[in-house]
């Protein structure tokens, strides 16, 4: 509970405390011990604490003494008063006093009722201290959860019809066995999926979250088909449950980082708790929506059976749109290779470090296989011996020394089913390299890419890279980019701290965590 305390110093608070006397009695030592219990007992009924005049609803002090402490909570402003016998906490309106039992004419104020109701709803759903973009995220989450919940209700009804629940010819044991088998297969697939994609939950959080959300929507569509193919119930239900379990694993893995991005006061537990409240309430609204639709069509069995197929494309589109827009309001402060590359490209082109909110707008939220289609993409890892290695790469590895924490070379790879030949830049990081070395290496790689995109390099890289001229120009470019890094790393690192980026670590996937070791034979 937040409270705002206002203090206005006052030099004179002339009120008489009950244990003070106007006279100056002289107490003898023999009488002191007998008087102390009497004074203590007299204090107990006199010093009390009343909330909003609760103990005496008819209290309205004629001349109360204002104490310089004001409390603001739940949209109400209260102040402490001394009435000569006890301390009271009463509602105040300006400088006046409004006791609960005060004789103030009743006046219904609609604006105040709406304001109080809005504040109560906000306090119920929204944590106390969150970032400004949290409200927008919750609005889109509401849209996503309501329509997703309604779809799940319709899909469950379809599966019940498929296994024959509610019909006399249904076999209870067979239905239960099918249900257990499809749940077991789904959970097994969830374990395999989580283990194989663990690092991607951090490095490609938004992309994985949206991709698995599409997978979840697809699973609902498969469940809706079970009444059409009741003999294939186990196959269809198992496929749908596998997709659902994979989506659930992704949701549980990516929720903590998303909540942490909103918890500006380290109140992660509060944000997580409010998120559960939101999910339960929004899901119940979706359940009510599905129930109302069923009630409206209960007299038309044919239309009720075809309703899920009519609503599925509409509700699915709204659901995915809400997820997509909600992820746009998630501004992650942690550094990944993709976010750091966006920051460095902006720094090289304009000397400006974008904020997490600005980088969030440039982040791709799309299919995982559409990642990295830009020309001269930068990859962190090691050379693939099965790929075609250029002479530039071999000469670069030969020039690596014991003082280097990384090296940069070119690589040739083939993309897609058409096996299109493309050239990229590879950043190899040494074992034991620090976070600063990774940033410096990516800064140098981005600077090299900018030079390679120039008109001169476009023509030379298409030719054979084995000529002495190409090798000479390449190592000159590497030396120039190293000097650029030495000049720009300090200001870049300082601006990243100012813009609110977390510089404790860089999140890399399994491939990007591959390191090389130096051996001087």
From TrEMBL:
The lineage of its organism: Eukaryota, Viridiplantae, Streptophyta, Embryophyta, Tracheophyta. Belongs to the RUS1 family. This is Protein root UVB sensitive 4. Residues 419-512 form the Root UVB sensitive protein C-terminal domain. It comes from Gossypium mustelinum (Cotton). Residues 121-350 form the Protein root UVB sensitive/RUS domain. InterPro entries: RUS_fam (IPR006968), UVB_sens_C (IPR055412), UVB_sens_RUS_dom (IPR054549). It holds the Pfam family UVB_sens_prot. PANTHER family: PROTEIN ROOT UVB SENSITIVE 4, RUS1 FAMILY PROTEIN C16ORF58. Signal peptide: none annotated.
């Amino acid at each position: 509970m937040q409270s705002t305390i206002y203090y206005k110093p006052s030099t004179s608070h002339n009120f008489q405390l009950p244990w003070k006397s106007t006279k100056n009695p002289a107490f003898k030592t023999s009488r002191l011990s007998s008087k102390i219990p009497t004074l203590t007992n007299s204090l107990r009924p006199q010093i009390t604490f009343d909330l909003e005049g609760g103990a005496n609803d008819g209290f309205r002090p004629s001349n109360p003494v204002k104490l310089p402490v004001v409390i603001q909570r739940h949209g109400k402003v209260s102040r402490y008063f001394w009435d000569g016998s006890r301390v009271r906490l009463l509602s105040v309106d300006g400088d006046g006093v409004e006791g609960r039992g005060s004789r103030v004419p009743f006046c219904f104020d609609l604006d105040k009722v709406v304001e109080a109701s809005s504040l109560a709803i906000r306090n119920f759903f929204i944590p106390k201290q969150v970032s400004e973009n949290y409200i927008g995220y919750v609005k889109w989450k509401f849209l996503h959860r309501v329509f997703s919940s309604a779809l799940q209700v319709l899909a469950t009804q379809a599966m019940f019809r498929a296994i024959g629940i509610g019909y006399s010819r249904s076999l209870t044991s067979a239905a239960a066995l099918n249900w257990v088998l499809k749940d077991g297969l789904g959970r097994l697939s969830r374990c395999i999926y989580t283990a194989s994609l663990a690092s991607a939950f951090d490095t490609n959080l938004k992309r994985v979250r949206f991709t698995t959300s599409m997978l979840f929507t697809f699973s609902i569509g498969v469940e809706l088909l079970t009444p059409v193919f009741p003999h294939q119930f186990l196959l269809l239900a198992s496929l749908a449950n596998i997709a659902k379990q994979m989506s659930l694993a992704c949701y549980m893995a990516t929720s903590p980082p998303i909540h942490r991005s909103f918890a500006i006061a380290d109140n992660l537990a509060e944000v997580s708790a409010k998120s559960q409240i939101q999910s339960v309430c929004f899901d119940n609204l979706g359940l009510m929506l599905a129930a109302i639709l069923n009630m409206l069509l209960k007299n038309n069995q044919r239309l009720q059976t075809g309703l899920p197929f009519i609503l599925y494309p509409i509700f699915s589109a709204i659901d995915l749109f809400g997820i997509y827009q909600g992820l746009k309001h998630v501004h992650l402060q942690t550094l990944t290779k993709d976010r750091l590359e966006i920051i460095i490209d902006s720094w090289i082109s304009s000397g400006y470090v974008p904020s997490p909110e600005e980088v969030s707008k440039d982040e791709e939220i799309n299919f995982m296989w559409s990642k990295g289609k830009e020309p001269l993409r930068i990859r962190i890892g090691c050379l693939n011996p099965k790929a075609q290695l250029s002479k530039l790469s071999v000469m670069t590895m030969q020039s690596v020394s014991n003082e280097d924490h990384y090296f940069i070379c070119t690589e040739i790879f083939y993309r897609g089913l058409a096996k299109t030949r493309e050239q990229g830049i590879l950043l190899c990081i040494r074992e034991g390299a620090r976070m600063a070395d990774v940033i410096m290496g990516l800064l140098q790689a981005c600077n090299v890419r900018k030079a390679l995109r120039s008109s001169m390099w476009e023509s030379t890289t298409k030719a054979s890279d084995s000529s002495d001229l190409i090798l000479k120009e390449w190592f000159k470019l590497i030396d120039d980019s190293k000097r650029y890094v030495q000049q720009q790393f300090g200001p870049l690192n300082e601006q990243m701290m100012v813009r609110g980026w977390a510089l404790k670590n860089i999140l890399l996937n399994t491939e990007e965590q591959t390191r090389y070791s130096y051996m001087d034979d």
